[in-house]
Amino acid sequence: MSKKLGFIGNGNMGRAMMGGIINADVFAPENIIVSDIHEEGLKAVKEEYGVNISLNNKDVAKFSDIIILSVKPNLYPLIISGIKDDVKEDVIIVTIAAGRKIEDTEKEFRRKIKVVRVMPNTPALVGEGMSAICPSEAVTREELKEIIDIFESFGKAEVVAENLMDAVTSVSGSSPAYVYIFIEAMADAAVLDGIPRDKAYTMAAQAVLGSAKMVLETGMHPGALKDMVSSPGGTTIEAVATLEEKGFRNAVISAMRACTKKSKEMSK
Ligand SMILES: NC(=O)C1=CN([C@@H]2O[C@H](COP(=O)(O)OP(=O)(O)OC[C@H]3O[C@@H](n4cnc5c(N)ncnc54)[C@H](OP(=O)(O)O)[C@@H]3O)[C@@H](O)[C@H]2O)C=CC1
Ligand SMILES: O=C(O)[C@@H]1CCC=N1
Question: Which residues are listed for NADPH binding in this entry (predicted)?
Fold first, then answer.
């Protein structure tokens, strides 16, 4: 893409997206700029990816055709007030903050502005991200296509209505954390059973990766796939019965509802 891309915030999510975009070769490093308040982290990404860096958010505002605001939600008003007079007329502002509505961003710019609200996730770094995308009315179809292309360069992307963004945060934005806990717990049990820890992580993570691929690539119902593993009177059904007894399903559902609720509260 010949446009110029800017990141404000060089944290976990900003770096994950930048890594994904550079690995996929969507933007040349010289067409990317990132700002943050921490010089050390900026120097590290310049070293790793060859992108432009700055300690001044206004440099990102002046350079970029598309700006991804990759800072914590509570910092958005401050960041926007600092760049609003320096952004290009036709700039596209991409927001990724949990609980930040498109209208909040529009109001803070105090003018008609193109906004795309996205909820990505950190597996972007390894090209397996999941992003939900919602454009504001001012964004053209071509511009939306460009944004989809960026987010599809490091994983899958779906366009959704804005009222689904809280639920999306739970099912794909935050969910890698629940999956890491599951992998950690499986590995701990394997270590308890005598498997060396490094092998335990590989085995648990590869089982999660393979199972996810089965769901995505066979199109089969997860329940049917579970049944294919569970031999009558065998080992798997013992584990499944214990998970049901301990409320595994319900723990996941309750956790995700808490996540969605928190995202809604943050939107107020
Ligand atoms: N992490 C995730 O998995 C996901 C995060 N998000 C969203 O992404 C956004 C960023 O999250 P995350 O990457 O985890 O956060 P991080 O705190 O890791 O990254 C934000 C970075 O911005 C820096 N920063 C603080 N103030 C400024 C400033 N004035 N100008 C420029 N940079 C500044 C922070 O420094 P310091 O640390 O000192 O504050 C930090 O380095 C959030 O809005 C979050 O809701 C969305 C989906 C997934
Ligand atoms: O925990 C958070 O608030 C952010 C949003 C989704 C993932 N991390």
Answer: 57
The per-residue DSSP string of 98-153 comes to TT--HHHHHHHHTS--EEEEEE--GGGGGT-EEEEEEE-TTS-HHHHHHHHHHHHT
Kindly list the domain boundaries of the chain, sorted by start residue.
5-162, 175-267
Q: Name which residue sits closest to atom 7 of ligand 2, judged by CA.
A: 174
Q: Map residue 92 onto helix, strand or coil.
A: strand
- Helices 175-192, 197-218: axis angle to 10 degrees equals 130
| CATH architecture of the domain covering 5-162 | 3-Layer(aba) Sandwich (3.40)
Q: Give the number of other CB atoms < 10 A from CB of residue 191.
A: 14
Atom of ligand 1 nearest to the CA of 98: 45
For 21-51, how does the pLDDT look when each residue is reduced to its tens digit (9 = 90+)? Answer: 999 999 999 999 999 999 999 999 999 999 9
Average pLDDT, the chain: 97
Q: Are 1 and 26 in contact (CB under 8 A)?
A: yes
The protein residue with its alpha carbon nearest to ligand 1, atom 48, reads: 121
173 lines ligand 2 (CB under 6 A): yes
Q: Specify the CATH class of 175-267 in words.
A: mainly alpha
